[in-house]
Structures are given as structure tokens and as C-alpha cells.
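Loading example: each entry is read as two labelled lines plus one structure line.
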Amino acid sequence: MKYMAEYRDGRLARALAGRVAAEATATRGYHFMEFCGGHTHAISRYGLEDLLPPDVRLIHGPGCPVCVLPIGRIDTAIRLASQAGVTLCSYGDLMRVPGSRGTSLLRAKAQGADIRMIYSAADAVAMAQAEPHRQVVLFAIGFETTTPPTALAIRLAQRLGLGNFTVFCNHVLTPAAIQNILESPDVRELGRIRLDGFIGPAHVSTVIGSQPYAFFAEEFAKPVVIAGFEPLDVLQAVLMLIRQVNEGRHEVENQYGRAVRPEGNERAQADVAEVFELRKRFEWRGLGLVPYSALRIKQQYAAFDAERRFALEYVPARDNPGCQCGAVLRGVKRPTDCKLFGTVCTPETPMGSCMVSSEGACAAHWTYKRFRDGGRRAPSAADVAA
Amino acid sequence: MCLAIPGKILDICGDDPLVRVGRIDFGGVVKEINLAYTPEAEPGEYVLAHVGFAMAVIDEAEARRIFDALCEVAGIAASQAESAA
């Protein structure tokens, strides 16, 4: 496929990696965080870490919306879906995420809840139109890329006068999460994460543009290179970051110019601003409560807000005590540091969210990199129990 | 989750800005995609589709410029790289 195949060329990848090795100063070391799960997946799938010299380390960030959704929100969705007359529409990514006490949307569906997997937010609107006797709720998650389609679904439902369509809004914001990481004790005080720059989001940036990252580049003196999700995109971005570091620059550069404009998609931004407003705070798995990091539906669209219509209450829930998803999401731990990884927690029976989504750091490592762990001792049953 | 796939617009139907829809060819698989967020998109162009919505029109000239730069850095002629792809 055009705009995909040419960015997966192995010969070019090796040549680019050679340039990276030639330009990276061995004694210095480079630690770059890729924010997006899409990058995490590409890095593992195409073995990019094996192509890069050992002094260039890629740290997986919290940019997988499935992974950062706290268990309490999954529990809320399951409670809602279990109500008589309610149809919950969810993107496929969320179906297997573990809730409290071994629940998941898939298990709730097996037990009789009307939970349906959709491809597009527009599908949920069409469902509400076709089944006026059902209360159709869209379980909306995602970063800035996925938010405009939800806004459009609400505007469409309003125009159609649908009284049976609502949205359970869990949309979150990328810049707030990046700022949270840069200001975290792990980075600033404890020095547990060293960050020399960011591989900036691909499709989030098609919507918000490249301007929102200028603050991080300037305020925290960290270079940002926006990159596409194909392997050559990532390698080229790494080279651009290394050049910035070597030259003492910290700017926002755009490797993904074929899709990202500096101003982003203004029509999509206008729709989001029309329908949504900032929440004062929102809980993220791994990051905790992050101020102004998520969106809720504005008062004027309250009729389409599932939290209002069904008076949904948020009850925080604890992660499995052995699960290290939180630390993995902050970049403090690697998947293999978790005792559950690859023992009781696999993509078939995930214990934590990072093992569910194919973009999660644990699932990516399990699928593509576990064979390289080689000599690592497999955790014993005693480790798991501890 | 934020994955978006590039596809070529075959044709477009509807003038309604909320539900303007295009038939998009993704390497042989054809799907209807909402074009509300890419009103400038025209048949023959490529868009990036995410959850049923086109979020950006691919800028062919910019794609060419950056890919050429990539090939130059790698020391391989762009024409060679593309024929291998």
C-alpha cells in the first residue's frame, strides 16, 4: 500500500540505522521517550531496538488510551451495560481489559449484558437510530485523534433529535500527560528516568498540530520530533533527535509532514471545542490524578452525557498488587521487571492493561521480543504469589 | 488506538458537511469513510482514516520531500528504494 510499503524498506532501515550509529556519541547515551502506543508497537514489531546502537535507548511512554484508563472507569462501564435497556458500544480495544474481580466487557457480554463492538462512533449513532427502544451508550476513549469523531457523533445525534444516544466520555489529552511526566519526581528529583527528547505523536498531531509541543521544547529544553508510525519514520525521527541533542538544540521538528501541519486540523479542533470542556482532573493509570488532562461534555450537550443521564458515580479501584502497569506506563520499569509478565499475565489472559492492547508495552514485548530475553530467569510461582 | 490507515479516495457522495462520505480504497479493501474533517479532500487523493473518519489529507509534495531526505541520509537513491518497496 502506498505510504506504508515504502516506509518499511529493510535496506533503507539498515542504512538509516548505520547513520544513527555513526552520529551517536558512544559515551553520551541517548534516552528518548516515544509517547504513543503506535510507536511502541512499531519499535517492537520491526525490531528497531536491535538496529539501533546500545547507547540509544527508547523508553515507552503512556500514550495508549486503553492502558491508561483506570480500572474504575471499566467497572463503571460494566455496571452501566448491566442495566436493563442499555446497549453499550465499545471499540474493540477495550473488550478484554480486566476490570475489578476478574470482570471485563467481554465477560459481562457473555453473562448477558448488551455490549457491542463498533468500528466507528457513527456506528453507535446509527444503532440508536435503528433501535429507538434501547438506550445506546458510546464508551468513548482515546486521545485527540479519536475525540473529534465523538464530537461529530454527538452533533449528529442532536440534529437527528435522538433521545436514546449518550456518550460515556473518557477522552484524554496528550500535552497534559507529557507535562506530567516531565514534572514527575521520577524525572526531576529521583532521576529514575532520564529523558533527552521525545518522539512526538503521529495522528494526535494531525489534529492538534505541532504547536502545542513548543512549550515542552522550550520550557523543559527537550527536543521533540513528531514521527509517523512506520519503522522508517521512527528511525528518521531518532536520527533527527540525535542531531538536535548533539547540536545542543531543543526544537519541535516534524518528520511526519505528509500528514501533520503546524496548525493541525482546525475543523476537528473547532468541533471538539464546541462539544467538550476540560475536566479539572482525571485519573490516569500509572500517572494518578492529572490536572486538566481530560475532557467532559459541555452543559449545552448534557442530554448526550451518559454520566449525567445515568447519574454514574466513579468508584476508584485498585490494580492487582503484583501488576506493574503503573510503573511501566511512567517508563520507570520495563515489562520484564514485572513478576506477572509472561507467567500469569499474557495477551490471552491479561492481568494488566499494558498486556491487553497490542500497543501496550507489555503486549508488544511479549509478542515480538520475548524470544530475545533468552537467559532471563522465568519467574517462579513463589515470585508471582509475592 | 490512534492508528490511521492511508487510503485513496475513489469517489465522494453527499454535500452535507456532517455526513459527507467517500469510498476509500485501502490496498484493495474499499470502505466508506466520513470526510467531515477533510472538506478539501478530492477523489484521487490519499487520506488517513481513523475510526471511520478521515483526519488528514496526505500532502504528496511534503511526503516526497521528506522521503527524499531520508534516502539521501541513507545514501540510497529514492527511485531504487521505491522500486524495492
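Residues 133 and 221 of chain A are 55 Å apart (CA to CA).
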